[in-house]
Amino acid sequence: MAVPFYERTLASNGVEVITETIDAVRSVAVGVWVRVGSRDETPPEAGMSHFMEHMAFKGTPTRSAQDISTTFERLGAEFNAFTSKEYTCFFARVIDERLEDAFEVLADMVSNALLAQDAVLSEREVVLEEIARHDDTPDDAVHDLFASALLSGHPLGEPVLGRRETVGAFTREAVASFKQRHYTAGNLVVAAAGHVDHARVVACVERWLAVPRSQASDRRLASPTPAPNLRVVTRETEQAHICWGVPGLPARSDERFVLAVLDGLFGGGMASRLFQEVREKRGLAYAVYSYHSLFLDTGEVVVYAGTRPDNAREVVRIVSEEAARLAADGASDEEVHRVKEHLKGQMVLSLENTRARMSRLGKSAVTDTEILSVDELIARIDAVTPGDVHVLAQKLFGQPKTIAMIAPLDADAVAEFAR
User: Is the pTM here over 0.90, yes or no?
Assistant: First the structure.
């Protein structure tokens, strides 16, 4: 058995700590990961995970919002936070000698967010503006529209930002209740990567991260039943913004590396089939690409294209035909080899960054998925064969298709050519 490249400890306060030491750098990236995202919200709480991320920056009993920002800037730190459908992360990247200073502020934000009434009211307006900005950007909004269609009735189909009616009704009491239920020791993971000693991070966690002790929250896991679906928002946009896709794979699937290769050759790069067919050969789109998302109980494989409205029918036809061709004929040895080499190169380059290394540890730990070394990742990609890709393409693209579109087109007209 290979020796782990990381160290992992359950601190005395019940928080899990995971670190990777990289001696060749002088920076440290550290993140506090919370096992809560939009999938964990009740309907009235839609958007609360993201709202709680905002509130952590609004001050604590000993620091104002400006104090938090000023301290991080004085440390020369990169700092931010983000919320996804399955987790929330607060992070900083600093020079190694400033680790304790940076972590103490992160821990204060997570443990002691003040959640003042006036801050809740003002931040509601900020998030409502964020939602409005998102909705005014159709090439962003169409992805949420697609998820709501593909995962209709499932928590993963809800937008991370929430909805205007729910966010606009958030109260201090609701925010405090959400934090009390989810920001607990069993739901927290602290991950760090860089020029750092594991025991040093554990000491920081035990000294400054003060949250209620608990076990990890139970999550409602349920794979949705695939069904064809169409969602069209008729809007006077210059382009038709199209998402086409099918259910994908859960995060722990043994086929996830096959999916990475399939996605890469289907629409994941400039040499991909969709880029070549839609953009290079026919000039039907400037932006056309595919991507896949892996969640705990399901996933999605999605194609996005932005095209003039009168080209929408042709783009949908080409995407559907390319998917059917891949399912019917598979991919050549040369094509699969090219994509695997590209994936390996991009992966290695991305991991030459302490924040990327920290994120890999934290995301894997907070979602209870395996953590593989770079060599193990390369071996898994190398093991993918054209036969594997063909079998998975048949399985995925044989499912009912979902299409979402924001365009100046009538829904009935879209339905006629999207069958």
Answer: yes
